[in-house]
Amino acid sequence: MSDFKIEARNRQYHGFSGNEESWEGPYMFVVGTDPQYGMIDTMAGKKDIGWDQEVELTRKAIEAVNAMTPRPKFFVVCGDLVQCTPGEYLRDEQEADFITEFSKLNSEIPLVLVSGNHDVGRIPDAASIACYTERFGDDYYSFWAGGVRFLVLNTQLYDNDSKAKEIRAQHDEWLLKELETMKTSGCKHAVVFQHIPWFLQKPDEEKVYFNIEKEFRLQMLEKFNDAGVKVVFSGHQHQNDGGFYKGLEQVVTSAMGWQQRATDTPGIRIVKVKEEGITHQYYEMDDIPTTIDLKE
Ligand SMILES: [Zn+2]
C-alpha cells in the first residue's frame, strides 16, 4: 500500500502543514523533471518496454533528497511523470510505479507535481486531463512556501488547445488573476513551474518543438516580469538550458530519465531561496550533495 496523497485540489496545494505566507529566512527546494517511466526503452526501440532504469534513477534521487540537510522545503517534479499518455496500454502500470517510488520521499518533504504533455496528452481534452487530475491532483494551482509565491501551470494548453478551448480560457483567466494578485501579495519572490519552457535560450528565439509560440510567449513574459516573477522552472527538453527576459530567468532542467544528448547525465537541481535572490545548481544523480550551505 502506498501512502501517496493528492495534495493539489481546488487550485491550491495542501501539502504544507502550517501557514507558509511569511518569510522565515532562506531555504532550499529540489527540482526534478521528466522521470518519464518507459521512455528509455521506448527511445531504444525495444518491443518489450520496461522502466527499471528510470526507477533506479528515481531511487537515487529520492535517497539523496531524503538525506539532505537542511531538509528541502519541497520536491517539485516539472512534468512528464510517465511515458504513456492517457489511455495508452502501459499507463496504469507506469503511474503505479511512479507513485510507489515517489512515496518513498520523506513524508515531511511535500511532493509538488506539474503536468506535462505525456501526463495530460499531446492534444488535451477534458477526459485526458481528468485522467491526470484524478490520480495526481490539479493540473494548475498556486501556493505559498516560506513567504514565496508559486504558480504551477498546465502548458500543454498552450501547445494545443484545439480540444480544450474552454479549459484553456479558464486556465488563462485564473493565471491573469494570480499575476494581478501577486503584485500586492507582499511575497518575497515569485516563481513559476511549467513543463514546457517559454524559451530555451533567448526570449525572441523562433518556435521549435521544445518552446512556446513566440508572439504569445513575449506577451506572457512581459506580464510575468511586470508581476514580479523571478524564475520559471521547466523541463521537457531533456537537456539543461535557459536564459533571461529582462530580470526574469527561464531555467530548463534536464531529465531525471532519458537524456537528449549522450554526453548529459540524469540529475536534479537544487534551488536556494534567499532574501536577495534565487540561485540553483544541477547535480548528476551520483553527485548530489547531502549538506547544502544556504550561506554560499
Ligand atoms: Zn515533455
Number of helical stretches of at least 4 residues: 8
**What's the CATH topology name?**
Purple Acid Phosphatase, chain A, domain 2
How many β-strand runs? 13
The domain tally reads 1
SSE arrangement, N to C: EEEHHEHEHHEEHHEHEEEEE
For the record, the CATH class is: Alpha Beta
Largest sheet: 6 strands, mixed
| Biggest sheet strand line-up | 6-7-8-9-11-10
Ends apart, CA distance between termini: 40 Å
Report the β-strand fraction as a percent range: 15-25%
Q: Rg, please?
A: 18 Å
Give the uncertain stretches in residue-range form. none
Mean pLDDT over the residues: 97
Indicate the structural class.
alpha/beta
Helix fraction bin: 25-40%
Give me the CATH architecture, please.
4-Layer Sandwich
Named once each, the bound ligands are:
zinc ion
CATH homologous superfamily grouping:
Metallo-dependent phosphatases
GO molecular function: metal ion binding; protein serine/threonine phosphatase activity
Cofactor: a divalent metal cation
Main location: cytoplasm
EC number: 3.1.3.16
Tell me what you see in this structure.
By secondary structure, the chain is α/β, with parallel strands linked by helices. The chain has a single domain, classed as 4-Layer Sandwich (Purple Acid Phosphatase, chain A, domain 2). It is 28% helix and 21% strand. The strands form 3 sheets. A 6-stranded mixed sheet has the order 6-7-8-9-11-10, with helices on one face. The chain has a 5-stranded mixed sheet with strand order 5-4-3-12-13. Strands 1-2 form a two-stranded antiparallel sheet. Helix 2 packs parallel to helix 3 and helix 7 packs parallel to helix 8. The longest helix is centred in the middle third of the chain and has 19 residues. The model has no long low-confidence stretch (mean pLDDT 97). The site of zinc ion has 5 residues, from loops. It catalyses: O-phospho-L-seryl-[protein] + H2O = L-seryl-[protein] + phosphate; O-phospho-L-threonyl-[protein] + H2O = L-threonyl-[protein] + phosphate. It is an enzyme of class 3 (hydrolase). Its cofactor is a divalent metal cation. Its EC number is 3.1.3.16.
